Amino acid sequence: MANYVLTLALKTELWQEHILEKRLNIARMIYNSCLSEILKRHRKMINSSEYKEISNLDKKEQSKRYKELDKKYLISKFELNKYVKPMTQKFKKNIGSQMGQELAERAFATYEKFKYGKAKKVYFKSYGNFYSVREKGNITGLRFFKEDCCISWLG
Question: Which domain of life is it from (predicted)?
Answer without folding.
Answer: Bacteria
